[in-house]
Amino acid sequence: MPRKTVHVIGAGAVGVSTALYLQREGFDVALIDRDEPGNGCSAGNAGNIGIASFIPPATPGIWRHAWKIWLDPMHPLDIRLSHLPKSLPWFLRFALSSREARFLEVSDALAGIMRYAFDAYDPLLRAAGNEALIQRNGRLFIYETEAGFQAAQGSQERRREKGIEVQALSGDEVREIEPALGPSVRFGHFLPEGGISINPQHMIQVLARSLEQGGGTILRDTVTGFEIGPDGPRRILSEGGGCDVETVVVAAGAFSGALAKRLGTSVPLESERGYHVMIPDSGVGMCIPVGAAERHVVITPMEHGIRFTTGSEFSGLDAPPRWDLSLRILDDARALLPELTGDVETKWYGHRPATPDGLPVIGRSPVHRNVYFAFGHGHVGLGTGAITGQLLAQLMAGKPTEVDLTPFRAERF
Ligand SMILES: Cc1cc2nc3c(=O)[nH]c(=O)nc-3n(C[C@H](O)[C@H](O)[C@H](O)COP(=O)(O)OP(=O)(O)OC[C@H]3O[C@@H](n4cnc5c(N)ncnc54)[C@H](O)[C@@H]3O)c2cc1C
């Protein structure tokens, strides 16, 4: 039997992992990206490989806090008025997803895939000879006010219900775990099972190299559309001229919505832009990633410095970045880490591919039998990249999938 060929569009955490798992299932794989692998949203995220990050953004009661966003022009959650006419239908779906029953369904489905987050990366990194790129020291959530601590109880309780160990801590207990944190921290939650990629961009590059070493092809090209035949797309159209295809996987992150639409499927997908700054020589020896809930900042000790991430900006894919938001992180960081010194080396932004319910789209296209989707991973695409690839490859190989993919189908919209 000749081997089947699959073209995967997008070389981020999701696309590269999917390509590798397809290769393991015996497919010939060509990975297409307009940029170098790992240079999209997967490059600059907070590195969290979350088995406990299954609380979606659309939580019950979230609308009670909406006024804060509108009153504070520097709020890290920024819903740009100029983009609202386009994003309004997305927000209406978001509001519907925040109903208790839907929230429980979504967090169940996310928890169902996240429990495999580490296990799915393990064999890929082992084969690439780079297992140390993921480290599991746990994860801290910190709070500076009693109100902030209390507001997090619901999410932490939901984690406990799902079997995740969550320890409630006083400020001093927090500092025993992470001595770099200052006295403003009064409460915390410690999740011992948490872990991070200590360099997400490098990790994707290493995996992409491993794909090539296994015989896969990486093509640098921008996909612009498809030529559709009687049995679905038969040719990818691209700036470089295009190529014939048997089977296509759309894994182009926040840019997947337009490609899916050209393939006949409409999925509500927004860019939820976030920012980071990196300080390589910070003077602070941090040992564990920290989420500062009230400040909407995540602090991650990486192999090349400390990374501070923030921001959920809904302004579309083309709006100019708001660097003032990224620099606000530094004030927050200094308030939390009194010993912090050093200069910012990089400022970065990336587009989270956000669906309104917080669930990714993983599965076969409802329109074409030779098209599959793997996009819309929002806040958790690094952590769930490998398990997405594993599940999709199982589906495409005609095997039973480890997890039921029904909640992730594009048809839910
Ligand atoms: C500030 C911030 C912090 C985050 N923190 C975390 C975290 O701690 N943990 C976590 O799990 N997730 C986190 N995320 C989310 C995570 O980064 C994303 O969900 C994930 O990177 C999405 O991966 P992807 O492969 O789908 O997309 P991407 O990494 O964006 O890859 C898509 C690729 O498709 C390519 N592409 C797009 N269009 C085309 C085209 N037409 N032709 C060819 N190629 C194309 C792009 O060049 C890109 O390389 C964070 C995101 C941000 C912004």
Strand residue content = 15-25%
Residue share in helices?
Answer: 25-40%
Shape: globular
Q: In DSSP terms, counting alpha (H) and pi (I) runs of 4 or more, how many helices?
A: 12
* Computed Rg: 21 Å
CATH architecture assignment name: 3-Layer(bba) Sandwich
CATH superfamily annotation: FAD/NAD(P)-binding domain
Small molecules in complex = flavin-adenine dinucleotide
- CATH class call: Alpha Beta
**Number of structural units classed as domains:** 1
The averaged pLDDT comes out at 94
Please state the structural category.
Answer: alpha/beta
Largest sheet: 9 strands, mixed
**Uncertain runs:** none
Description:
This protein has helices spanning 13-24, 66-71, 84-97, 100-114, 117-128, 146-151, 153-161, 171-177, 200-213, 256-262, 323-336, 385-396; strands at residues 5-9, 28-33, 77-79, 134-135, 139-143, 167-170, 187-191, 196-197, 217-220, 223-229, 232-238, 243-244, 247-250, 270-279, 290-292, 297-302, 305-314, 346-354, 361-364, 371-375. It is α/β, with parallel strands linked by helices and 413 residues long. The protein has one domain: 3-Layer(bba) Sandwich (FAD/NAD(P)-binding domain), CATH 3.50.50.60. Strands 3, 5, 6, 7, 14, 15, 16, 17 and 18 form a 9-stranded mixed sheet that branches. A hairpin with a 2-residue loop joins β16 (297-302) and β17. α1 packs parallel to α12. The protein is globular and about 65 Å long. The protein starts with a strand and ends in a 17-residue tail after the last helix. The model has no long low-confidence stretch (mean pLDDT 94). Residues 9-15, 32-35, 39-42, 45-48, 50, 222-223, 251-253, 255, 274-276, 309, 350, 352-353, 375, 377-383 line the site of flavin-adenine dinucleotide.
